[in-house]
Design goal:
The structure holds two protein chains of two kinds.
Chain A lengths: L1 H16 L3 H19 L7 E7 L4 H12 L3 E7 L2 H10 L4 E5 L3 H8 L2 E8 L3 H26 L9 E9 L6 H32 L2 H5 L5 H31 L7 H25 L3 H17 L12 H7 L3 H15 L7 H21 L5
Parallel strand pairs in A: 1-2, 1-3
Antiparallel strand pairs in A: 3-4
Helix pairs in contact in A: 1-9, 2-7, 2-9, 7-9, 7-10, 7-11, 7-13, 9-10, 10-11, 10-13, 10-14, 13-14
Chain B lengths: L1 H16 L1 H20 L8 E7 L4 H11 L4 E7 L3 H9 L4 E5 L3 H7 L2 E9 L3 H22 L9 E8 L6 H32 L1 H7 L4 H29 L9 H25 L3 H19 L11 H7 L3 H15 L3 H30 L1
Parallel strand pairs in B: 1-2, 1-3
Antiparallel strand pairs in B: 3-4
Classes of the chains: A alpha/beta, B alpha/beta.
Chain lengths: 371, 368
């Protein structure tokens, strides 16, 4: 036991003496939560709209006004030809071009129908879909206005199905409420993985591992001594992040903090197992960092942090079961936003427990005292 | 010159002997592109929903059928009472519950009015919004069916043309971003670490006293990474063109020239980092925090820059990746030439020159 304490003390000293280490551990959460949470949004806002109005009538102006009235579109300018519109798209100064044909107003009056054209920059396919939906909504309400103007009789007797929506757990549809718990996971993951994966390999590269190897410390004592300090740092980090989440972004914490900490403690342990395994397996810090980066990117993308997991094809969904980040992201959102308790997250708990055991056994097994 | 080549060859050996790093170096672009192309999508698919049908009549059956046959939704379970809704959400198995009022068909018949409530789990607001929009559309299309072909005075119809990406493939959006990330990783992070490594190990001193001058040492160290970056770039372009059918509308020469320019800028930043960092660990931290994260978040790689708050939009201007991504999209998808991209190109040239200048200055100070 005393031997473990010596290692623990050594690790703490190393962390606190290193000037670049502390800022990373405590500044990074702050920066990430301040910057990333605001950046990470799939909300589509400020869509640049360019209008090619070849009619110049009351109706065409009214239609443009309908677009401007929503908070989504920003009018960047008017043009007279189709070509001008295309040009704006090419230049990238417009995301959408609305083309109103000549005789727009006359056709609405006389023929009861007319066509407008919407040119959308669809490089970002998902945004293009949303832009299209917004636009369809605007046209629909514009049409409804015209309809009331013509006061179509007989429309009243048509059966009507009334659809209402209610949004639970986040009634204002605030994207930040959704992202903060996820970003918190990301932050703990990055700090812990980079700290632990470089740890042993650094000693190897600098040659200090030899000294540890000739000491009477046992393998498991060594690993525990390496794990414990960073585990506490990870937990402190999480607490720090939760305070920012609550204090700054007013993200609700509906469930119990105890549940979060229970899961987090196992999760951090898992990460450390992965980190130490990478560390014992690598020859240089560069290599360790690179392997780390590789897994980090893959884990992050398939964690359901940014894009929903159920949209993935089946094989990819199966892959995500082997991704520890996935479970923590899920649990954080369930507990913080929906108030899930230990019973609701039992499956995730079991999975992460298995992960922690497997990864740490691997780390102990692969550390050789002679290498 | 011969000495210089000798040095470059030594660096190549150095890199090629580290098999693991090499494997990852060439493997990661492939895996990332494949994942993005085949797995990661923003679209709505296989959304699990529950149905609370207190009426169970012909009409509600018909609407339920329509919702489930749309391809977006999968029925997870049928609920019996209102109380079950809460528990179902808490377990996290369904994203939305569709509730039909009791005696739905009867109300529709006699009062000409009936209501459906969609309760969405809005902890993911984006998906929740999409779900309610889709279900509402399905229900209202059923309403239109009820009109039995009665003509509605539907005045204006829209014809939508999706430019540059008519099938709305997600991969088109991600290719430029993946390219940028890999190039940054190889050109900036790896370079800065490999130079700092020589410092940390003390072998830098050896190089300093060798007959090679300082400039050749640096150029020699970064040359292999330049090649690696270009190979990576080519493999990403090949994959995206041949596996995912992404077009190269513009000139391929211009594309690679711009890529080389970006790599040059990234290398300059890498060298600059190595002049200010003392250990590999701090080099890694600086390039991760200062570069990779902003690149992922602020370059428009994943999240549209135009939706961000104003300060972040300003901040995104100093991220080199942002300009390069615009260039790649412009050349590959829009097919525009330098006449549309000169501004972005100039910014990149400026950044490259600026960081070269900074690192040369720092380097000299250290030498004296």
């Amino acid at each position: 036991m005393r031997k473990i304490l010596y290692i623990v003390r050594k690790e703490y000293l190393q962390v606190f003496r290193n000037k670049s280490m502390l800022p990373t551990i405590f500044l990074m959460p702050l920066v990430q939560l301040l910057v990333l949470v605001n950046a990470a949004t799939f909300d589509i806002k400020n869509i640049n709209l360019f209008v090619v109005d070849r009619d110049h009538s009351v109706y065409s102006r009214d239609l443009v006004r309908h677009y401007k009235a929503t908070k989504y579109f920003v009018l960047t300018g008017y043009g007279d030809t189709y070509q001008q519109g295309i040009d704006q798209l090419q230049k990238g100064s417009a995301d959408v071009v609305l083309c109103i044909p000549p005789h727009f107003e006359r056709d609405v009056y006389k023929q009861n129908t007319t066509k407008i054209q919407l040119l959308v920059n669809a490089i970002d396919g998902a945004s293009a879909g949303v832009i299209n939906a917004y636009s369809a909504g605007i046209i629909q309400s514009f049409n409804a206005n015209i309809m009331t103007e013509f006061a179509a009789p007989g429309l009243q007797s048509v059966p009507l199905i009334n659809v209402t929506q209610s949004y639970w757990f986040n009634p204002e549809l605030d994207y930040r409420t959704y992202m903060v718990p996820g970003i918190l996971v990301l932050l703990v993951t990055m700090v812990i993985l980079s700290l632990t994966s470089l740890n042993i390999v650094r000693e190897k590269e600098l040659g200090t591992i030899e000294q540890l190897n000739v000491s009477p410390i046992k393998k498991y004592q060594f690993i525990i001594g390496k794990i414990f300090p960073f585990w506490t740092l990870g937990m402190v980090n999480l607490v720090f992040g939760l305070i920012i989440a609550k204090g700054l972004y007013h993200v609700p914490i509906v469930g119990s903090l105890g549940t979060i900490f229970l899961f987090a403690s196992l999760y951090i342990l898992t990460l450390q197992g992965i980190g130490l395994f990478v560390s014992t397996r690598s020859e240089t810090q560069q290599q360790a960092m690179f392997i780390n980066w590789f897994f980090n990117t893959l884990f992050m993308l398939t964690a359901g942090l940014y894009t929903p997991i159920e949209s993935m094809p089946q094989w990819a969904q199966t892959v995500t079961y082997f991704n520890p980040i996935r479970y923590f992201v899920e649990v954080m959102r369930m507990v913080m936003l929906k108030g899930a308790g230990v019973y609701e997250i039992r499956v995730q708990l079991l999975c992460i427990f298995t992960f922690a055991v497997v990864m740490n056994s691997l780390a102990v097994w692969s550390y050789r005292k002679r290498a | 010159m011969k000495r210089f080549f000798g040095f470059v060859v030594k660096e190549f050996y150095h890199i090629s002997r580290d098999r693991r790093t090499l494997l990852i170096l060439f493997g990661i672009p492939v895996i990332q592109i494949l994942f993005f192309g085949f797995a990661i999508t923003n679209e709505l698919k296989n959304v699990r929903i529950a149905i609370l049908d207190q009426s169970k009549d012909v009409v509600t059956d018909r609407i339920t059928d329509k919702i489930l046959s749309s391809g977006y939704f999968i029925l997870e379970k049928n609920l019996q009472t209102n109380d079950q809704v809460w528990q179902t959400f808490k377990e996290g198995k369904v994203r939305a519950v569709v509730c039909f009022q009791p005696q739905f068909a009867k109300h529709l018949e006699s009062d000409k009015k009936a209501s459906v409530q969609i309760i969405a789990d809005a902890s993911d607001p984006n998906t929740a919004n999409m779900i309610t929009t889709y279900i509402s559309a399905i229900v209202s299309s059923y309403s239109t069916e009820l009109l039995n072909g009665q003509q509605i005075p539907y005045a204006i119809s829209t014809q939508v043309r999706m430019f540059y990406n008519p099938d709305l493939k997600g991969i088109f959006m991600f290719v430029p971003g993946v390219m940028v990330l890999i190039l940054m990783m190889v050109s900036t992070t790896l370079t800065s670490i490999s130079i700092t490594r020589e410092k940390e190990m003390g072998t830098m001193e050896v190089l300093m006293v060798s007959p090679l001058n300082a400039l050749s040492v640096i150029v020699g160290k970064v040359t292999p990474y330049l090649f690696l970056s270009l190979i990576n770039c080519a493999s990403i372009v090949l994959l995206s063109v041949y596996v995912f059918g992404m077009p190269i509308q513009g000139s391929i020469v211009l594309l690679f020239a711009e890529a080389a320019l970006f790599i040059f800028a990234a290398l300059a930043i890498g060298i600059y980092i190595s002049t200010i960092a003392n250990s590999q660990q701090s080099a890694m931290l600086i390039s991760n925090l200062g570069l990779n994260l902003p690149t992922i978040m602020l370059s428009g790689y994943m999240f549209p820059v135009s939706s961000m708050p104003l300060p972040l939009r300003w901040l995104s201007n100093v991220v080199p990746a942002r300009w390069f991504i615009t260039i790649v999209k412009g050349i590959m998808l829009k097919g525009v030439g330098i006449e549309y991209l000169w501004k972005e190109t100039l910014v990149l040239i400026f950044m490259a020159v600026f960081f070269t200048f900074l690192s040369v200055r720092n380097y000299k100070v250290r030498m004296e």
